[in-house]
Amino acid sequence: MKYDPIKRSLGSVFNKTPWLRKLFYRLLDLLLLRAWYVKRELRSWKARGREPLRVLDAGSGFGQYTWYLYRLGPAWQIDAVDVKEEQIADCKAFFSTFDKEERVHFLVGDLTKLEAEDTYDLILCVDVMEHIEEDEQVFANFRRALKPGGMLLVSTPSDQGGSDVHDHEEESFIDEHVRDGYNIDDIQEKLKRAGFAETEAYYSYGRAGQMAWRLSMKIPILMLNASKIFFVVLPFYYLLAWPVAYVLNCMDVRRKHKTGTGLVVKGSSKLDA
């Protein structure tokens, strides 16, 4: 299953005007349960009152989370890095229409070669690590790039069915993943080996969230891969499916899960003595 052709098709529609792009971001925030978890953590971080902040959106993609970070903290400076030149160019063009203070800087970059040191208060990395083979090198780069007392926030699939894989013989629903998901203990051990002083991880996408994901994401993507005619059908599908998916998302984000197909992971650097 390839996401990039779908992304390009959607981009050709929603990039026509800035307001359509903003509408697209809002739709993603509603549909993607991981955005609910990530935004909750970011609001909690903001509540600590540490401003101004310098933030790295590591693997910024469409710019969905860069847009949220931009609106979340008016004193925040944001570097958004992605390996795909076309996405960086696309985001630059969009943000140039309103970011007159130039608080956001989009950069083409490989996270395995990130060289920043003691630069960022917060590093956000959403649905990226499952695409990178050299994950421990990236974690070490993140640790070096954080200021003392800084935090890394990661959202990634777990090994409990992440990437829609439920046994060893299944292939990932998403071809671009180099691993089907992280073990909740293993990823924390990797962060500790990278030098993070404290780690925390919990499951997202419990049973309710998994049902919502199938309704709001998997079925539509399979439809669009089958035929572009489903772009016409999709709005009517969501009229029926979205209310159910919304309720399921609300249930999921308000519960603690013993297991789940997603992980939210945090790593903190030590404060200077």
Note down, in words, how this protein is organized:
The protein is an alpha/beta fold. The chain has one domain: Vaccinia Virus protein VP39 (Rossmann fold). It has nine helices and seven strands, in the order H-H-H-E-H-E-H-E-E-H-E-H-E-H-H-E. It has helices at residues 4-14, 18-31, 33-46, 64-72, 85-95, 135-145, 184-193, 207-226, 230-253; strands spanning 54-58, 77-82, 104-108, 120-126, 146-157, 198-204, 262-268. The protein has a seven-stranded mixed β-sheet with strand order 3-2-1-4-5-7-6, sandwiched between helices. Helix 3 packs parallel to helix 4 (64-72). The N and C termini lie far apart (49 Å). 38% of the residues are buried.
Note the total helix count: 9
Name the overall outline. Answer: globular
Query: In angstroms, what is the radius of gyration?
Result: 18 Å
Secondary-structure element series? HHHEHEHEEHEHEHHE
Structural class: alpha/beta
- Please state roughly what percent of the residues sit in beta strands, choosing from under 5%, 5-15%, 15-25%, 25-35%, 35-45% or over 45%: 15-25%
Strand order of the largest sheet: 3-2-1-4-5-7-6
Report the top-level CATH class. Alpha Beta
Question: What is the helix fraction of residues, given as a range?
Answer: 40-55%
CATH topology: Rossmann fold
Main sheet summary? 7 strands, mixed
Average pLDDT: 89
- Architecture (CATH level 2) name: 3-Layer(aba) Sandwich
Fourth-tier CATH superfamily name: Vaccinia Virus protein VP39
Kindly give the count of domains.
Answer: 1
